[in-house]
Every structure is written in C-alpha cells, then in structure tokens.
Amino acid sequence: MGDEAAVAAKPFIIGVAGGSSSGKTTITERLVELSGAEHLSVIELDSYYVARPDEPFEQRVAANYDHPDAFDWPLLNDHLAALAAGATVPIPVYDFSVYDRSPEVRLVRPNPIIVVEGILVLWEPTLRARFDLKIFVDTPADLRLIRRLQRDVAERGRTPDSIIGQYLETVRPAHDRFVEPSKRHADVIVPDGGMNRPAIDVLLARVRELAGT
Questions:
Q1: Cα Rg for the chain, rounded, in angstroms?
Q2: Mean per-residue pLDDT of the chain
Q3: CA–CA distance from 196 to each of 24, 134, 191 (Å)?
Q4: Residue 138: CB partners within 8 Å, gap ≥ 6?
Q5: What per-residue confidence (pLDDT) applies to 7?
Q6: What is the pLDDT of residue 78?
Q7: What is the mean pLDDT of residues 76-81?
C-alpha cells in the first residue's frame, strides 16, 4: 500500500447497515453530497465478496451471497486499519455478471470521513468496533424486494424469476437470521430508508458536526 503521510487526525468511520435495497446507498450518496467527495471515502461491503476463481460458474451462481461467510472480513478490516493509519488502499472490484472479483481495483484515499456500507457491516464484531457511528436503515420487506427486482433486472442482467428465487432461498432467511438482529448494535435507526428525508437531513447534519467538516 506504500508509505504515505498520515492524515491529520483519525478518520471518522461510519457503518451503514440494513437489508438488501433498504436505502443504504441513498443515505451514503447524501453523505457524499453534504460532505464533498474530497472529504469522504465510501467502501461497499459488496466489494469484499470472497474471491472464487477456481470454482465453476454454476457453483459460483449457487453460492449464498447473503451469509456472513460470503465476505472477506480479514481483508476489509485490514483495509480499514490501513486507511485509519493514513494509507491509500486497493479495494476489489466485484463483477456481478460472473459472480467473482474482476482484475481491477479501486484506490480509496484516507479522507476525514469513511463510510462502510453493506447488509452485514454491523454483524461482524471486529468491523463494528471500528465505527464511530453505526446506522441501520430499516425499510419494510415489500419495498426492499421491489427495489431489488428493479435494480437487479436493470443493472445486473438478472431475470425476475431468478431474483425471486434467490430472495426466498437466501436473502430473506439471511436477513431474518443475521441482518435484522444486527440492528440492536445501531446508534441510529432510520425508518423507511431513503424515503425518510427529514430523518436523513437531521442525521447528516449531525454527522457533519461530529466529523468536523
């Protein structure tokens, strides 16, 4: 990762969790808009799916991507520790069309605010302990499923039948078993996700105050 000058102060690290398509990205985008991209770095948990280069495509498709075992927690924790120490880190780029990491990486700088966003970022204890603020986006299941259908058809080339099948087989069970229970670790719960503009504006103003930007 190279030797770099340390940032002036330890970054303010925010974890944004919640169910699939709950509105986590909307809140993260508002944080970037409010703070400025030069002050805030974003890390997506989806970038840290375990690499599966030796598995056949059919096996990769059938994997459970909503279970905690699907993620490379040690690498994510190492990257956050490096960012906190002032280093730029190479974030993996995940290719959803092949269900594996691409050869590319995305360089992320150690800005004053770092947001880690993903369904299970409040589940893993070592990661959770790194957050200065823990947010859970709480959105009804029907809205999350509709948004997931729209996103995966438009952006990931999936069929509605495959999306619904995955939702019933892995997404909903993992949400009930892992994601929903992690809500108890949150400092702030935002109801209705990105649709709750008053709650988001109050939250973002407080984040800006805490982070000193």
A1: 17
A2: 86
A3: 12, 18, 7
A4: 18, 22, 183, 189, 190, 191, 192, 193
A5: 41
A6: 97
A7: 97
What domains are defined for the chain?
12-208 (3.40.50.300)
Amino acid of residue 112: P
DSSP alpha helices (H): ranges in the chain? Answer: 24-35, 57-62, 73-84, 125-128, 141-156, 160-166, 172-174, 197-211
Which residue has tokens 């409040």? 122
Q: What six digits make up the tokens of 186? A: 């949150």
- CA 90 – CA 3 distance, rounded (Å): 14
Q: What is the DSSP letter of 1?
A: -
In 3D, which of 70, 65, 94 has the Cα closest to residue 162?
65
Q: Is the pLDDT of residue 126 over 90?
A: yes
